[in-house]
Amino acid sequence: MKYETISIERHDRVLLASWNRPEKLNAFNGLFFKEWLELLNAINKDETIGAMVCTGKGKAFSSGADVSEFASASKGDQKVKEYWEKYQPVAFEAKRMIASKPIIGAINGLALGAGLTCTFWFDFNLASTEAKFSMRFSKLGLTPELDSSWLLPKLIGLQKAKEMMLTGNIYNADEALDFGLITKIYEPNNLVDEAIKIANSIADNPTNTLHTIKEMIFQDMTATSFKEIAQRSINNFADARKSIEHREALLALQEKRKPKFHDAVHIKKISEKNKK
Question: Which pLDDT score is estimated for 73?
Answer without folding.
Answer: 62
